[in-house]
């Protein structure tokens, strides 16, 4: 391969790699422009309110304060975050109304950052609080508070192809052996939070504005800032050096607030201005992942071939409708990627709420849509016992196959000329040892050597079977990061579907031929009172027979062992409390658990028991 290609199969050095690791790379904040001052933003403490009045006289009277800019200073200019592709302009940059906690109220420029912060404290603002809407459902209720008069019903008009039909979905469902119809949602609107917060320097030369900005996609940013500021494209100059991480949050395909703010600061201060988000602003006022929900109807043959899919999807834009509809449009490509059927129907909306504006975060639209769709796909696979990898291979596009591309409404029927995706699925399955790991829906994930104990993960439950009977625990996966040896997942556990969840950890791994299970025993609690000598009394804070079963030991044995360990580790301790975790080496049958002592240092003692000896 190295002989055939210049780059494939060869190590490629990052262009700025050596400069970054040696500290030579220039980030935005490393630049100093002659005459530069510093900007800060006074932000709203309320999710939805009207600004009744702003008194900035005390701030402007301070030596070294160049300007204080409010919505009244730019009223009528039509400045708003807009990328030229998405909804009509709406006043989302500085306005009489604030629409999320952290929305801008006043822009301050001063000789130093500390002076700008001090000036912010001098600004007096009177608010009229309004009723906010926090969720998609709240925003779409009849009679709900309206965020913008431009968006009746809190629904942003769209230009992209968010409503289409292809083929005959009714016929496709008739041909299906299994039909799944379900609601699904992605509720975790995480903040990408790269190490470097959004940072910008801006200055004006007549009607041309120049930026030095931490922007991950300069071409998008250039276009969107020009549109937002109502400037011709050629009147915006953008210089980008090293970027300290983005993960989509500095793509600026819609959320260009920080650049527009800096441009306004520089214009009113009549000098270059550096504005950098504080980490608090980065957490509370910068874009998050797009929350979305929808309804999916999915049909499939018993062999795993999709026959039809219908999907409605609603995106939460937060307080600024900009790039979300384009993300939804890109996400429609999840349909041909995951379902090899031409019988499709799709409908989507963008809704505004009183949250931080949402935007791109890793996978630009694909993850949000795929998350909703795969829930229905895998439920169908479970019902007819189809291996998920078999489904993915059967529905992957082969080289040359036709598919419907909704992102190209003028020429939607296209052919896959990129690669054989079926082979990609096969090679991926082989690389991650799927055939060895996948045991089937509801089949035990792990079984002890003698077959007396099994552990199965199925349909949001963990079923533990052993000599003591069958125990069912309900769970929700919070995060999952596969490693080289197996599965490591953070899971929320409950005893029953109606109980409140408690966080725990389940890990199943196979290293060096030795299978290891680690399981936090979810809120099990047991305290032992340490007595003098080898005889130990005990005090139970909650009876936990599971601990006795796991250690195969009576309370008196455990207490005695703790007393011996504790007396050596901490003579002052009088109580030992089990931390609820047991680590099991299934091959050697060694069990290890820990206890916290009630001394000043919270000393930890460990007990290990080899049940095979």
Describe the structure.
- There is one protein chain.
- This protein has 17 helices and 31 strands.
- The longest helix has 19 residues, at 366-384.
- It is globular, with a radius of gyration of 30 Å.
- The strands form 6 sheets. Strands 21, 22, 23, 24, 25, 26, 27, 28, 29, 30 and 31 form an 11-stranded antiparallel sheet that branches. A 7-stranded mixed sheet has the order 3-5-1-13-10-11-12, with helices on both faces.
- The chain has 613 residues and is α+β, with helices and mostly antiparallel strands.
Q: What is the helix fraction of residues, given as a range? A: 10-25%
What low-confidence regions span 5 or more consecutive residues with pLDDT below 50? Answer: 474-525, 532-543
The biggest beta sheet reads:
11 strands, antiparallel
- Going by helix content, strand content and strand pairing, the class is alpha+beta
In what range is the share of β-strand residues?
Answer: 25-35%
Estimate the mean pLDDT confidence.
80
Q: Give the overall silhouette.
A: globular
The gyration radius over C-alpha positions equals 30 Å
Overall number of strands? 31
Count of separate DSSP helical elements? 17
End-to-end C-alpha gap: 54 Å
